[in-house]
């Protein structure tokens, strides 16, 4: 339908994005591609995924390497991991809480290892300046109702769980015998000794110590 001649259609141009907003928009668009291909992604693929020209990407980030570094930091963002820890119900049984924590930490380590491999990076992952140990605070709140049954501080339990999860996340270490998170939780919670079992045999002094004692008596 034709509009009356007195009507004037005014088309307002979209507001140009600020540089930080443009970089963030590009990163969000290319993140699935970076998660799949890592360093092997091409500039053409990045441009297609973000819906902008290659030149626009280079103007926003300076060069491809800077975009890859920014993408790596975003893929390693610990916030989703923290959110997963916070979703663990506080009314779960103690051992079930430990299982959930180990499972979440194993998932985090596994994803970090995978991303670092895709980006062909060695050594520890890059660390954000704002990154802290706030995951410990989440564990403190989660295990606070169970503090009375712990033989060590909650922080120590958290570091035990991190260590166990780390070892269980390294594939070559688990090739011959895999462990699920509930089994690992059982080891942490109950140990390997049978409750109420016989006491351990009296320890004998090392042979060198025994020989030294005999020499001393002979002297």
Q: How is this structure best summarized?
A:
It contains ten helices and no strands. With 219 residues, the chain is an all-alpha fold.
Give me the secondary-structure topology.
Layout: H1 19-37, H2 43-50, H3 54-61, H4 64-75, H5 79-86, H6 94-118, H7 134-143, H8 154-169, H9 181-190, H10 207-218
Order of helices and strands: HHHHHHHHHH
Q: Give the strand content.
A: under 5%
Count of domains:
2
Largest sheet: none
Calculate the mean pLDDT score and round it. Answer: 84
Broad structural category: mainly alpha
Task: Give a structural overview.
With 219 residues, the chain is mainly α. It folds into two domains: 19-75, Arc Repressor Mutant, subunit A, CATH 1.10.10; 79-190. The protein contains ten helices and no strands. The longest helix is centred in the middle third of the chain and has 25 residues, at 94-118. It is elongated, with a radius of gyration of 28 Å. The N and C termini lie far apart (120 Å). The mean pLDDT is 84.
Task: List key phrases describing it.
58% helix; elongated; 2 domains; 219 residues; mainly alpha; Arc Repressor Mutant, subunit A
